[in-house]
Recover the amino acids of this structure.
């Protein structure tokens, strides 16, 4: 579109800096001569006195030469042959015509080539109220100051994470919290791993690993993430790559796999399992750092270099190391489903504990009514995970049994999970607490409903205020229903 109906544009500018226009005016007859060097004499009157044009060329007139002038043109250099056309140009949409289109014009004219295969138009960074960041407005923080606050990787990751492809990003200091917290999470996980694996002598080969469900699951997920991240990078969806890698490293690797493996890591009586955990932790972490390197170059390189001491890797640095390749044989959908089932069950038990404020260290009994034999088999096979991650001292699976009372319940994949409360909490005090909570929620719900039933309020209030009140109504309604259900479970 931008290449159609191209017209001449005024290339002169009245500014202090730039390439001076090579136009010379004879002081005797005012003849204009355009030449690379100052003429020796006027072609019209033979005068030797000239004045060069005071204007300079438009910035874009010189910038449009960039694809080839930087690589030795007009000579046919190796760089020119190799780098023209280049693969990808990244720029902002407001200079499509000023720069992108004009680079295409000049490169076609002088080199008979289109200078790039793909142009990625990124969004504009704006402040909290939507203004474009600029020095004149004074609404743009100095990146060096931000790096001092949170680090270069945190700044880089936060900006990429919050910038959907082609869309503008609205900056505030709060944007940086995600990147900073993610960096801290990675570093703490790395320190934990290094402090523990140093106590375990030796390292098995991959063929010697004694793997269980969690081990096969983390490898399956790693290989799925490698494929996803590769696709996102290749399709220039950097924020999607950031989201995928953060979810995997933080939620799956750190929050689940590290927690599950702690007992095996400390168990000196089972060295085979210990060595398996050591190998997998190092391997998954080093591959994760390779995946993360384009987004967090500093922390990933630092960690990777230190992992080399304990894990065999031939490359000199991560920046020149091979990008991970998906191994389809390690992707196992059934393993993924089994682990998801266990995770959802553990999360449900954790939520039950929170509902009645049972301390994290208190061990509990859980009764589960499975929907089928497959669920029962999985629960019994992986009951150790419930002990490690939900402090379940006794897990009973029963078919077609009556509901235990007093107990609170949750449902996962059609099966019922019960937490018996006898001996765990003071039932009367808990009922009293819930009654107060219910009473408060019902009062707030009634106030909100009265406001929403008021015609004058609905006619005069701003839409966002009305929406906020409707949201509050739903929130108090949910609290009311949930609290009534809890009180019923305690009887």
């Amino acid at each position: 579109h931008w290449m159609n109906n191209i017209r001449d544009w005024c290339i002169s500018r009245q500014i202090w800096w730039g390439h001076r226009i090579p136009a010379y005016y004879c002081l005797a007859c005012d003849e204009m001569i355009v030449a690379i060097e100052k003429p020796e004499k006027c072609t019209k009157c033979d005068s030797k006195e000239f004045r060069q044009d005071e204007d300079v060329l438009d910035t874009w007139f010189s910038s449009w030469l960039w694809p080839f002038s930087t690589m030795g043109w007009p000579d046919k250099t190796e760089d020119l042959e190799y780098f023209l056309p280049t693969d990808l140009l990244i720029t902002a949409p407001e200079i499509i015509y000023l720069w992108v289109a004009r680079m295409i014009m000049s490169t076609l004219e002088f080199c008979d080539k289109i200078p790039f295969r793909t142009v990625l138009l990124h969004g504009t960074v704006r402040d909290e109220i939507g203004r474009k960041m600029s020095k004149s407005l004074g609404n743009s923080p100095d990146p060096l100051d931000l790096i001092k606050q949170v680090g270069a990787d945190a700044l880089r990751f936060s900006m990429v994470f919050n910038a959907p492809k082609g869309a503008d990003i609205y900056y505030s200091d709060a944007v940086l919290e995600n990147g900073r917290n993610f960096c801290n999470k990675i570093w703490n996980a790395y320190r934990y791993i290094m402090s523990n694996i140093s106590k375990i002598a030796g390292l098995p080969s991959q063929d010697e690993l004694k793997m269980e469900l969690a081990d096969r699951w983390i490898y399956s997920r790693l290989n799925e993430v490698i494929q996803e991240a590769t696709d996102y990078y290749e399709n220039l969806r950097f924020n999607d790559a950031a989201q995928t890698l953060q979810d995997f490293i933080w939620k799956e690797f750190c929050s689940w796999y590290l927690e599950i493996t702690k007992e095996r890591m400390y168990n000196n009586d089972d060295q085979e399992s210990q060595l398996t955990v050591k190998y997998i932790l190092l391997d998954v972490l080093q591959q994760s750092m390779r995946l993360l390197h384009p987004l967090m170059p500093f922390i990933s390189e630092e960690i990777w270099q230190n992992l080399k001491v304990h894990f065999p890797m031939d490359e000199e640095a991560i920046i020149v190391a091979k990008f991970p390749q998906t191994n389809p044989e390690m992707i196992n959908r059934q393993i993924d489903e089994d682990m998801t089932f266990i995770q959802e069950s553990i999360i449900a038990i954790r939520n039950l504990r929170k509902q009645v404020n049972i301390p994290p260290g208190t061990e509990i009994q859980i009764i589960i009514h499975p929907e089928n034999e497959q669920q029962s088999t999985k629960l019994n096979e992986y009951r150790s995970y419930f002990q490690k991650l939900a402090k379940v001292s006794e897990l009973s699976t029963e078919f077609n049994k009556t509901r235990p009372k007093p107990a609170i319940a949750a449902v996962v994949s059609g099966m019922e999970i019960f937490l018996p409360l006898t001996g765990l909490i003071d039932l009367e005090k808990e009922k009293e607490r819930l009654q107060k909570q219910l009473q408060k929620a019902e009062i707030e719900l009634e106030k909100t409903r009265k406001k929403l039933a008021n015609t004058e309020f609905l006619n005069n209030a701003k839409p966002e205020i009305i929406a906020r009140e409707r949201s509050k109504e739903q929130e108090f309604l949910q609290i009311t229903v949930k609290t009534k259900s809890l009180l019923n479970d305690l009887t």
User: Anything to note?
Assistant: Residues 167 and 290 are 27 Å apart (CA to CA). The first strand starts at residue 12 and ends at 13. DSSP finds 17 helices and 13 strands in the chain. The radius of gyration is 33 Å.
